[in-house]
What we know:
Helix content is 30%, strand content 24%. By secondary structure, it is an alpha/beta fold.
Amino acid sequence: MVLLRRLLDAASVLHVRGSTDIDIRDIVYDSRAAGAGSVFVAMPSARAGAPSGASHAREAVERGAVAVVSQEPLNLDEGTTILTQNARHALADMAAEFYGNPSHSMHVFAVTGTDGKTTTTYLLEQILAHAGFCTGLVGTVEIKIADRRERNLDRMTTPESLDIQRLLRTMADSGVTHAALEASSHALALERLRACEFDVCALTNITTDHIEFHGSADDYFSAKASLFKELAQGRPAVLNRDDSSFERLEPLIAGPVCSYGVNTRAHVRATGVEAFPEGSRFLLEAGGAMVPCSIRIVGDFNVYNALAAASLALCAGVDLSTVAAALENAEPPPGRMQRVTGGDVTVVVDYAHTVRAFELVLSNLRRRTESPRRLIAVFGAAGDRDRAKRPLLARLAREYTDFFV
């Protein structure tokens, strides 16, 4: 338990009505999860027109909440009410304090970008484990805490700030020393990673996506770039030198930059890239050293994901030979260029949902499909998302495949 006063000292508070000398057993942002001794943080709605958390404050109190934090004025008969300028900030700051700021006692890595976050963090975790560290992972596909893995059933790439702090606390208590997190643009815009301290952050690439949420390409870029504000002082940022975002983003980074790329002047690079049926082989170069390397993941674009993971690991002090050995034995994440073979048919399952990712997947598979074999695509587009990309996906399917559904 933690005193409410201590939690509020960590947050920015405008006004308090009621006692703050209360033992807090839990923090919740869902009124249905409120219980005895909890504090309910009434979150603003992320969707226009949807009710805010303040409308559920009375229900939270009825369920046992002893305090409510809101950025809207409240008129409750029971409990302590706290007015704050930003409820999202308050939730993140209070959660970090409640769980003892677990990111301060671990090496935490974050990866953002339009495409490649899941594969990059998945590869990074395997490199760090191969190097002998006890590892954790939080991403779209799964959550890993030491030797325990579980599927991420709610499919939220980056959980809410409270859940992030809870997961990091569990990791720290389980002996995890190095944790890799996916950082989505939604999470960054909604500041779910506030109060996390990162040792190294990486950006894979930026193309236009989630405009239905962010409103403009500039706002989308700003959301991605905001991750680097959470870096611990003097810690490095990992950037893709071959991506168009590099020239715009590099001047915004306060600390050192480690760049990666293919056949470029990057700090970490792949040269002599060759494709084979199950993946790619190349020479991995960094710091004047060079080692042969291969990955068992189909797609030229996955060489970039491997380079991003390698760069993050190198920044953490893992040596180049260990990185290469880990990559050669690394498994791809489920649903990311995942091969399923049977008879004369090879099925490749991939999450590609952006225009860029869809084209990269299909163009790579087209080059690997030799006559008389045919390339057949089965795909769809999620509802309530960017409708403008749907005809573009269909055109790409028509261009690269023999048949599509």
